[in-house]
Amino acid sequence: MATKKPSSPSPSDYSESSIKVLKGLEPVKQRPGMYTRTENPLHIIQEVIDNASDEALGGYCKHIVVTQNTDGSISVEDDGRGIPIGLHPEEKIPTVEIVFTRLHAGGKFDKQAGGAYAFSGGLHGVGVSVTNALATRLEITVWREGGIHTLAFADGEVIEALQSAKAPRDISKKTGTRVTVWPDPKYFDSAVIPPLDLQRSLHSKAVLLPGVKVTLQNQKTGDSQTWQYEQGLRDYLNESLAKASDQGALIPLFEGAQYMGSGNSNAEGFAEGEGAAWVVAWTQEGATVRESYVNLIPTFNGGTHESGLREGLFGAIKSFIEMHALLPKGIKLLPEDVFARASFVLSAKVLDPQFQGQIKERLNSRDAVRLVSTIVKPALDLWLNQHINDGKKLAELIIKQAQSRLRSAQKVEKKKSSGVAVLPGKLTDCESSDIGRNELFLVEGDSAGGSAKMGRNKEFQAILPLRGKVLNSWETERDRLFANNEIHDISVAIGIDPHGEHDTVDLSNLRYGKICILSDADVDGSHIQVLLLTLFFKHFPQLIKHGHICIARPPLYRVDAPARGKKPIQKMYALDDDELAVIEDKLRKEGVKNGAWSISRFKGLGEMNAEQLWETTMNPDTRRLLPINLGDYDQQFSEQRFNMLMGKTEAAARRAWMEENGNVTEADI
Question: Rg of the chain over CA atoms, in angstroms?
């Protein structure tokens, strides 16, 4: 029986005083990992650099200087317009102070015509306020309107109020901002910023801002580096390819740029100024180079803009090959055949980017797929038909990739062909035999299974509907698992028998590279996820270890937003209440009145039609999959925790654990 310290409040003492309200920047200090990376302070410095880059993106800044000072601080200075220093019309305090002390405040919410930052990387408006919250000290100097204006913070609080003085005559016309940050080591695993990562970040800014000079200075060593590119993307890709491979590009680089103009601002439903610039090279050997950006923000994990590039390239090259009858009989091209040997640098401009998390490593804006593909495909169509011989060389390389892929798939099929068990009758299988591409969705309920069958891509996505909740298999012996029909069907469908963590398992019999748990976005759906994860953790641990298990994340809400400013009518999806609040806050900032948008709550997957389920949850270009992995875990501790949570005789331990941790959960009633 659990014991409690006398000084600790009883779990039954749940009153008004139990609710803690975090104000100002306290949420960042309490949970810094929700807002930034905590390995080192690089990301909070990048937030400041990104603000300077946004000034350059708007055409107001020509030089960005980053200085590593001898006392460990870092200064970022630009010659942009300077942060406004006057009183905010609503808050009645200096605007520069609001920018650094209020979450969800900044110039990037104003997306109307003439907004300060029509195209920027900022999404939530928490960027530099997070920098301030996680710094022991932060100083700001603004040159604006013929004056010098200074302000200082410590631990996110103002310690030196805004002071203004007239600038000397020789700099009376100077404009810009300098921010100096002393990161607080207690919030980070290491206080040291990796020098190569900082250099790479600044280098990429120079590449993506043609004509803008970017300088990195180190006062300790006296070193200084400056980057400036007049032909940004082309020079960058050529330089990167030279380092990655001794072989040059097979054909001349394919490059282009297109943005929606005022004459066709509503064409295809996109806003004026949205578009992309790109440069693509195909090589026969060596490493590929792939970098993408959205409004100058590096998207290390890609996202929907890269998916749009892949779709556009595939569509154009496939059309060219079919037009010239180059495809051998029996060969079917796939997008990965076109992309396998492609290197690229892609820079997209999206009016209202939606990223995965505050660290912005992956773009999730669903419209970006169509945006990029619709401008890249016609451009490559034209290029290929103007360069027929180069197009045929490229077609030959891509057909070789397709033939190699098919040979690999046939080898796997031969290994599997002997003694395959009869597949479950309710399994709707896929057509492809490419294990690396195939996906199996374990779907909650027959109703949702029907929508998933209609909405899936039948070429590589299979559906196995599950009836009711799966057996809690934590204490079930391995040789008795097949007595349960659902577990029997799962095992036969995936082609792997139950096994222990240290058993030798032949994964060549695996039929799907991804096994995705697809359940409702509610408590019952979470329970089904837990039961299936328990099954895989206990009886199929090698599948988790090798990264084959994922959780599909269907949205809980759909928001129908009216047209506003440059943005047309939109359907937006929110995973949970937090994302819904962010969407509503964003709509208000864009001038939409409360009640002008409608919110639909999906009670379950069965309420989604096939098109909605595909768009939000199954389309590889726009979905959000949560991969499950073991990481660096303590086996003994993990098994003890699973035993406490899932063991049939552990009710008392579960009750004590829930009483102790109940304050960190939210009930979905």
Answer: 28
197 is known as an active-site residue: no
User: Hunting for tokens 């097979």 — which residue is that?
Assistant: 250
Spatial distance between the Cα atoms of 156 and 506, rounded to a whole number of angstroms: 55
Residue 137 has what DSSP assignment?
E
Catalytic site residue from 444, 486, 489, 621: 444
User: Is-catalytic flag, 522?
Assistant: yes
The catalytically annotated residue of 522, 579, 585, 659 is 522
What was the pLDDT predicted at 663? 66
Helix 232-244, helix 195-208: angle, nearest 10 = 140
Quick check: helix, strand or coil at residue 444?
strand
- Map 461-482 to HEC letters: EEEEEECCCCCCCCCCCHHHHH
Cα 226 to Cα 202: distance, rounded to the nearest angstrom: 9
Put residue 309 in one of left, alpha, beta given phi > 0 → left and psi -120 to 50 → alpha. Answer: alpha
Establish whether 54 is a catalytic residue. Answer: no
Report how far residue 482's alpha carbon sits from residue 490's, in angstroms, rounded to the nearest whole number. Answer: 10
Q: Are 268 and 370 in contact (CB under 8 A)?
A: yes
Catalytic-labelled residue, pool 145, 429, 524, 659: 524
Residues 6+ apart with CB under 8 A from 431: 458, 459, 460
| Spatial separation of the C-alpha atoms in residues 287 and 306, rounded to whole Å | 18
Alpha carbon 174 to chain centroid distance? 38
Catalytic residue among 78, 520, 615, 621: 520
Encode pLDDT of 91-127 as tens digits.
788 888 888 887 754 444 344 444 434 454 443 335 7
| pLDDT tier at 409, thresholds 50, 70, 90 | low
Whether 50 sits among the annotated catalytic residues: the reply is: no
Tell me if residue 303 falls in helix, strand or coil.
strand
Question: Nearest 5°: phi and psi at 176?
Answer: 145, -175
Contact by Cβ (8 Å): 289, 202: no
Dig out the tokens for 631 from the structure.
Answer: 């990481």
Pairing of strands 514-518, 557-561: unpaired
Stated pTM of the model:
0.63
Residues 128 and 105: their CA atoms lie apart, in Å, by: 10
Evaluate the CA torsion angle 243, 249, 252, 256 in order and state its sign.
negative
